[in-house]
Amino acid sequence: MKFFLDTANPEEIRQAAALGVLDGVTTNPTLAAKEKKSFRELIIEICGIVKNGVVNAEVVSTDTAGMLREAHELASWHPNVVVKVPMTMDGVRALTALTKEGIRVNVTLVFSPSQALIVAKAGAYFVSPFLGRLDDISQNGLLLLREILDIYRAYNFKTEVLAASLRHPIHVVEAAKMGAHIGTMPFKVFEQLFKHPLTDRGLDSFLKDWEKAREVLGDIVPPAAAARNTGR
Ligand code: E4P
User: How far apart are CA 22 and CA 200, in angstroms?
Assistant: First the structure.
């Protein structure tokens, strides 16, 4: 499963990229608006941090012609940009045209299997079902993901399923168990994936036991070598 960070904050992206398990970034107008800098500058900065991964940047026009103009501009900013268009009829018209031109498109705000079916037929690069927002209105986001994956597998669609609006680690793990190609998550959820209280407790007791026997055990790195390595 590829991990995308669902943020436009360069510092969060830098921290996640340094861990070596980040495959891309999704932004949306709400996330971009929090950063208080030009969208172009922001997307180019993020592309520079993610390097080999894709960066999803969304259009804000609602008519096909406007979406196409914005999509061409966004795609010209960096080769790693994937253009996000909303799941509307205008969006699907834009998707069809952009796909013919070879521009990669992520269709966002997908909430039903029928929408996902249209998106794949029109040749999208990614489809983004929003799991958390369905859960918020008492519908089952993971069930939608299951249905989309079943349909895509039945017809061998090439569109990758990007599980979006993930709110907690269980969303990520369940999406991974189903075989979603990508999960995009806020930095907080990404951090939670690393943590377990037994890891912290276990490490704490290992270090305490080591400290008690320190005189006999000695140092793993001899003090002279440690001083050389740290330049002391
Ligand atoms: C994905 O591309 C969207 O930006 C995102 O996952 C929406 O998540 P939210 O429902 O937490 O805002």
Answer: 23
Beta strand pairing call for 2-6 and 24-26: parallel
pLDDT tens digit sequence for 89-137: 999 999 999 999 999 999 999 999 999 999 999 999 999 999 999 999 9
Evaluate if residue 230 carries a pLDDT over 90: no
DSSP codes of every residue in 113-130: HHHHHHHHHTT-SEEEEB
Report the separation in Å between the CA atom of 221 and the middle of ligand 1, taken as the mean of its atom positions. 46
Residue of 165, 185, 187 with the most ligand 1 atoms within 8 Å of its CB, for mutation? 165
User: Which atom of ligand 1 is least distant from the CA of 185?
Assistant: 6
Residue 130 in contact with ligand 1 by CB distance below 6 A: yes
Burial (CB < 10 A; 0-12, 13-18, 19+), residue 104, is middle
Residue identified by tokens 């793990």 is 173
Quote the Cα angle for 112-113-119, to 5°: 95
> Is residue 2 flagged as an active site residue?
no
Q: How far apart are the first and last CA of the chain?
A: 43
Q: Which two tokens stand for residue 93?
A: 């018209």
